[in-house]
Predict the structure.
Amino acid sequence: MNLHGRSFIGGILVEESVATFRAISPLDNRPLDPEFHECALGAVAEALMRAEEAFPVYARITPNARAAFLERIAEEIARTGDALIDRAHRETGLSAERLVGERGRTVNQLRLFAGVVRDGSWCDARIDRAMPERQPLPRLDIRRMLAPLGPVIVFGASNFPLAFSVAGGDTASALAAGCPVIVKAHRGHPGTSEIVAAAIVRAVEASGLPGGVFSMLHGSGEQIGVALVRHPLARAAGFTGSRAGGRALFDAAASRPEPIPVFAEMSSLNPVFILPGAMRERGEQIALGLKGSVTMGAGQFCTKPGLVFGVGGPDLQAMTEALEKGIRETAPATMLHAGICNAYRSGIDSMAKVPGVVALAMSDAEALPDRTHGEAVLFTTDIDDFLLRPKLHEEVFGPCTLLVTAGSLSDLVRVAQRMEGQLTATIHATESDLADAADLIGILRRKAGRLVLNGYPTGVEVCPAMHHGGPYPATTDERFTSVGTAAIQRWARPVCFQNFPAALLPEELRDENPCGLVRMIDGKFTLASV
Ligand code: NAP
């Protein structure tokens, strides 16, 4: 496939270029063709103006037309064939098998959101009918629903080059809500981004939509990324990546004259608590599952378990030995890009230097720098050192974990109380363990977005009940999810109509319920008309 290396604004290629860069394949550290062109700041204003022009048209097309558009994007991406998988493999080092699976997830997400749009109930329509006879004061007719925010900025994530990048969950949910999208492409996989962006542009054209519904810009985060978020026409942003990057964009958005939300998913240690009964009954089996969860995808998942807690004793010792063996047998794996690999190496180097921390095991095979390898590592420490050292509370993105030995169950409660916000928290427990775990579960409910029992946090199902979010620093807004159908709610705001005639109401709020929605009428959910 011939790549042009240009940004897209509303289907038109951007000619102006302020700098060029190439993707570097982490498989062999060699640059890939072609050159990609970073756009000038003028492209930011142009993309946002086109998005703003497109917004009133796109927000008002029928749910069926919007759903068909999402399905068309899915179809175009499904048709990209081996060209997309080959390019993504060379740019990210991820295996073809993983990427085929990820493309399937991307396509399914788009189709899932098409279903959400057709169903329409996501708009949370509520109607409180007028009560002219009410005493002491009459009630007016009041109707409310969610409406799209306007142009949304999406930052493609490096670790899901398809499912959380150009046409990933953020883009799919924002387009589903009725918002035009401008993607700031991740420089780790610019060719993959171009192939997917071209698929979206074809879908925009085939659906007869205004071009400004979708744009994708290449450029530096600190310049193009910040300028996109600070532009007065941008209404919200979605981000997955580092805490520093997410926080910089959040702060840039908050310091605008008119602040906007940035939904950033940033860092999480995903603690795993193995309670004594489970440790005794199946410690070695848990060790095997943990090894898989820590090292899968070279540990480059936001839900990788980076902390494991157990109560000291022979059962923990047996589990530790099984985990050590698993880590030693894990071959070093190619990481997504040199930046992530270097950050991982410096993360494990600094962890090894923290007083009280011991590196118990690492991959037996040598990590090859020219293949951007990260080796698997198991560290250990005790609970007092863990509580004393802030460094141990930071995410290390890659295939390592820290096993912390506690003295008792109450130590586990104490450590959970001191934890920052997390995407997930996992408990391994028997029924009798659970009888003593109410305090721990109570605290973890406040610390994490998803609680996992007797399982592993990696592998996030895309479904209506999923919550992939959590208190800061896991995300910048713990009320929302970035995975699953509820992700659409980030891109909408409530609008209330008081005393409006039927002809001026949106269809979703009309008496006869022409969209066939489940609505709340006078406090009760119903499919009925008014
Ligand atoms: P990143 O450095 O945060 O970059 C993500 C995106 O944000 C890129 O498009 C980047 O643009 C932009 N960006 C970064 N810093 C910025 C800033 N100060 N202002 C404006 N935009 C900025 O993430 P990454 O390259 O994917 O990986 C780096 C580290 O992030 C990893 O080592 C890991 O620690 C963490 N990470 C975490 C997760 C997670 O799910 N928790 C996922 C991926 C990565 P430029 O590249 O052009 O600067």
